[in-house]
Amino acid sequence: xxxxxxxxxxxxxxxxxxxxxxxxxxxxxxxxxxxxxxxxxxxxxxxxxxxxxxxxxxxxxxxxxxxxxxxxxxxxxxxxxxxxxxxxxxxxxxxxxxxxxxxxxxxxxxxxxxxxxxxxxxxxxxxxxxxxxxxxxxxxxxxxxxxxxxxxxxxxxxxxxxxxxxxxxxxxxxxxxxxxxxxxxxxxxxxxxxxxxxxxxxxxxxxxxxxxxxxxxxxxxxxxxxxxxxxxxxxxxxxxxxxxxxxxxxxxxxxxxxxxxxxxxxxxxxxxxxxxxxxxxxxxxxxxxxxxxxxxxxxxxxxxxxxxxxxxxxxxxxxx
Length: 320
Fold this sequence. Notes:
alpha/beta
């Protein structure tokens, strides 16, 4: 029996699936970070060795029968990084076909099932990535929290703190955000709130989760939170529209896959985004039913010319 491996790797963890050709997941494994921009080559080797060892508890029996490894790895858009990753994977599984792509492609495939389209990722950061029918790939945004990442969890969280403090100053209308932020940090004074942020080892990791507070305030009909999220939806929509213009001819019906924590409240950001995309009728928003690592397995099947049908998708959903 032939086997296939899909990998979704980033700056925090790497998730892998080992499956047969019918969509049945045989095993899963999670290891450390695999972004070459974050760790060195020796660490990368150790991460993948650990990953594959965990995938196959039959002492390499199944690994020897792996036909394709499809790895969506953060940082692999850099040609030098991609070469390093391909070499490491090929050294561990020399008999397999190795394909390394940016991790955004896995997120795309989780909603398009291997077809062309756009993926809008909005978690801590934000980026729109797409691929057309000719296989051309483009990106919009994703320039990091200091100079970009509009519509991200970080951007929303930062806007929430800024608006709360402006309200305290009398420069913004009253908002429940300030009280909610005080409760979150267990403080009662603005200077204590600021200290909680600035004293953090990585302020970004403290600010991004505050987006959840903005969403909670939105659900309580707070007008300031509503303004923040409406602006975020406009920012995200502008990314999607720009990418659509780059990759598609303006007439193609195109799926837009929504991935990341900003889209978890299905009744808020997806709805606001849909409103901001009403002028582009060809775009269809999709919230995936499988995680990005499932998209990487679909990528492996594509490389093996296995038709992605309903049976395979149902098996994946069941066994994932």
